Amino acid sequence: MASGQKLDLVLRTKMPHAEQHSRPTLLSNFILGCQDGLVNVLGVILGVSAATSEVRIIFVAALAALAAESISMGAVAYTSTIARRKHYLREVEREKHEMRTMPETERGEVRDIFKKWGYKGRALEDVTDKIVSNPKAWLEFMMAHELDLEPVERRAPLRSAWVVGGAAVVGSIVPLMPFFFTGSNIAMGTETAVVISGIALFGIGVYEAKTTVGSLWRSGLQIAIIGLVAGFAGYLIGSLLGAAPV
Questions:
Q1: Does 66 map to a domain?
Q2: Pair 132, 138: CB distance under 8 Å
Q3: What would the DSSP string read from start to end of 175-195?
């Protein structure tokens, strides 16, 4: 096989393989916000329902938690994505400076990466020369394979904020829905909220297992148990404080 063909094979096989790591996507951000909102509001509902017999108070507390959680989650997604973008851009400038001022050192780093992939001899030198002959490819190669960083679009912070914040609203509504149908029967509303929240959390765990690795049942049960335990912590607090003399 000619050296040019070897190089093409390297770029088609090795470089795409390096992008198989998990990445924050719109769907994964939606799942994150949805799970967080659901668990938070479930805990509030269980806590308040253990301390009061008024459905109105449960609605007020749950809706207040929904508003605070969605805004908080959206703000965190926005600021954290901005921080990732700034970090990436700062590293880009640093890498460009090193490529200008110490090109042989940077070339050696490219060579070392291909060497770790198992290439040697003439094929190793050919693929290294090919990368460093193109400044754009060289820079992107170093950002991805030396620093393990990926670019963050200018619009990404705002998009993440809307997705995560909106998902928190959706998740928060899940444990609250039963109370729209059970009326003043707080016990039935609470029990139904636990059931549908458990089902929703199990579904989230199954999705995570499908998009990564692991047992669907184990992942689903793990997420459901963790979420329900967090919710019942609210119930325990509500029971203790609700029963305490004023």
A1: yes
A2: yes
A3: HHGGGGTSTT-HHHHHHHHHH
How far apart are alpha carbons 67 and 165 in whole angstroms?
9
**Contact yes or no for 63/198 (Cβ under 8 A):** no
Answer yes or no: pTM beyond 0.85: no
Among residues 2, 24, 45, 6, the alpha carbon closest in space to that of 127 is found at 6
Return d(Cα 243, Cα 220) in angstroms, integer. 34
Instruction: Round to whole Å and give the CA distance between 168 and 147.
Output: 32
With respect to residue 16, please indicate whether it lies within any of the assigned structural domains.
Answer: no
Alpha-carbon distance of 245 to 137, in angstroms, equals 70
Domain assignment of residue 205, given as a range: 25-240
- Total number of domains constituting the chain: 1
Give residue-wise pLDDT tens across range 20-44. Answer: 444 546 777 888 889 899 999 999 9
Tell me the per-residue pLDDT of 100-127, one tens digit each, with 9 for 90 and over: 999 999 999 999 999 999 988 999 999 9
pLDDT, tens only, 65-98 = 999 999 999 999 999 999 999 999 999 999 999 9
Q: Given the structure tokens 């200018």, which residue do they identify?
A: 154
User: What is the rounded distance in angstroms from the CA atom of residue 82 to the CA atom of residue 89?
Assistant: 11
Mention every residue, 6+ apart, whose C-beta is less than 8 A from residue 85: 152, 153, 154, 156, 157
